[in-house]
Structures are given as C-alpha cells and as structure tokens.
Amino acid sequence: MITSTIASHSALQIIQGAKKEGFKTRLYVSPKRKPFYASLPLLDELRVTEDMSKILYDEGIIIPHGSFVAYLGIENIERSKAKFFGNKRFLKWETKFELVNKALKKANIPQVESFDLSEVKDNELYFVRIEGPKGGSEHFIAYGRDLEEKLKNVRTPYKIERFIDGIFIYVHFFYSPIKERLELMGVDERLVIADANKRRPFKALPYTIVGNKLIVLRESLIPEIYDYGLAFVEAMHNLEKPGIIGPFALHFAYDGEFHCIGFASRIDGGSNVNHWYSSLYNGEEIMMGLRIAREIRLALEEERLDEVIT
Fold first, then answer.
1. C-beta neighbour count of 179 within 10 angstroms
2. pTM exceeds 0.90
3. Which residues of the chain carry a pLDDT beneath 50?
4. Which residues, in sequence order, are CB contacts of 63 under 8 Å at separation 6+?
5. Could you read off the pLDDT of 108-151 as tens digits, one per residue?
6. Does domain 2-84 have CATH number 3.30.830.10?
7. Among 179, 186, 181, 147, CA closest to 273
8. pLDDT digits over 145-167, tens only?
9. CATH 3.30.470.20-classified regions of the chain
C-alpha cells in the first residue's frame, strides 16, 4: 500500500505517519521545492512536476491537505476516480461562506457577528475575512470609516465581521468511523505578521500565517469545545454523506465566549504542532499524520477500507 500527497502544507507529518505505519510514500513536488523534499529518507518516490493535477490519477491512497483545493480545484477533486482518504465531498465546505454558514448553523455553533457595509459604524473596528482558505494573506482590519475605500479593490467575496478583542484558537479533531469516536487531537494559535500590532491597528500589516504554536486550554473549556466538535460531526453526517472521516478543525475567537470564525474540512496546518491531547486517546503523543495512517491500517486489518476512502 502506498500513500500519496502534494509536497506542501502538512505533507511532512503525513509521510512521516505513513512511514511509521509501514506504508510506502509518494510525493508530488514542484521543481523549485525538489532539493528539500528529495533530501528526506522518509520518501519512497518523488514525482517532480509543475502539474499537480497528476495526483488525481494516482493509484495509491491520496491524503488531501490545505493546498489541494488551491492546486487542483474542488470540481476536479470530486470528479476524480482516485481513492482519497476521508470524504472528498466535505473538502468544499470550507471554501464558500454560504457553505460554512450552513454547516455551523446546522450544528448550532455560535458564529462571530457579521455586517453589511451599510451597517458599520465609523469608529468601530472590523475584521474583513476573504472567502476561502488562503493562509490569511488577504484578510485585514479597518475602522468602519475606512471600509468603503479599502473594499473598492477587493475582487473576491468577503465578510465584514465584528473585531473581537480576544484570542484566536484552532481546535483539531479526528473522527474515526472505525472506532466510532471523536478524538480531540490538539489546539494551536496562529503566528501572523499582524501580531506585531498586538491585534490592534497601528499600521496595516497582513494576516499571513507564518507558523503555529501549541495552546493548552483551561480544562473547564474543553467539554464545551468537544461538544461543538460532536455537533459538527453530526451536522456534516446529515449534510454531506457519509459525513466526516478523519481530521478537521474548528476555528474560534474567544473573548469569554466562543465565536466560530470558520473550519478546516481536512487536516489543518496547525496540527503540525504536536500536542499531548492526542495521548488521551492513543496512549502516546502522535501527530495527525500518524493518526490518519493508523486509521487506514485499522481499516485494512478489519477489511473496512471502503469506510474511510471516497
């Protein structure tokens, strides 16, 4: 058995996890990124190409991550006859505001308040969120009095949100259809360039993500977060059969209350931070990539592979 993915995002932990479970590994990599990935002893095969769509014809089990939709397009992914770990029809749900809102409302998860441009107040601060997973590079903050001018050059769908004076946390889950349980795998915080402003605007800085750091939540908050995860799994089971298989993440702003700002419908880049929460379910700290590989291994042993791939 061979697992395949694209050399980006969370590919390192994906191939490391696959190797630990005894699977062969294959990466599709662009020529400019070849030197680093070619140096890795974890790899069995490196396919160097500018055309990442070649992975859609791969004969192994494909592990999608956050770069797949950008590189391949959701329509091409859903039409592909290749075997994807997880529900490949779930991938599109993070890419459109309409779908994000539908999923979170179905799960009854509180969202951050949003406004039309006509509703904003001059002296209030707002966060403008650009549609789709883009690493935060196009999001920005502005006072209401400046929004109309700043939005003139925005060509993609956006949402004007109340700026929350709090912390932003990203909660990583794994739903196992084999074990029929939801596992809390970890929590992270994003390191963004705009952190130089301590989340208040002194000059315009991008919200481009450059890294992640581990967060340990106050334990009294964990049951609430876990309940949101359970509700989300149930909602997606009803909205997009067969529902969630494997990793996903819920993204929150917290100011004394949780406000969901979105989700990741695949392995989230923040899971690149190893977290001890994973040991609560697995007996040891493991990365999400290894948890994926173990689910595939378990499915193979129980002859239930069709339950974890689409």
1. 12
2. yes
3. none
4. 3, 4, 5, 14, 18, 84, 85, 267, 289, 292
5. 999 999 999 999 999 999 999 988 766 666 888 889 999 999 99
6. no
7. 186
8. 999 999 988 888 999 999 998 88
9. 94-112+166-197+207-307
Residue 202 is predicted with a pLDDT of 59
Do 106 and 235 contact (CB within 8 A), yes or no?
Answer: yes
Q: What is the reported pLDDT for 260?
A: 96
Query: If DSSP codes are grouped into helix, strand and coil, which group holds residue 293?
Result: helix
Q: Which CATH class is domain 94-112+166-197+207-307?
A: alpha beta
User: 123-126: which pairs have CB atoms within 8 A and are 24 or more residues apart?
Assistant: 124/162, 124/163, 125/163, 125/200, 125/201, 126/160, 126/161, 126/162, 126/163
Radius of gyration of the chain (CA): 20
The type of residue at 203 is K
The HSE-up count of residue 260 (CA atoms within 13 Å, CB side) is: 24
- Tally Cβ neighbours within 10 Å of residue 296: 23
Every domain of the chain with CATH number 3.40.50.20 lies at 2-84
Cα end-to-end span (Å), the chain: 16
**Tokens in use for 115?**
């406004």
- Alpha-carbon distance of 110 to 231, in angstroms, equals 12
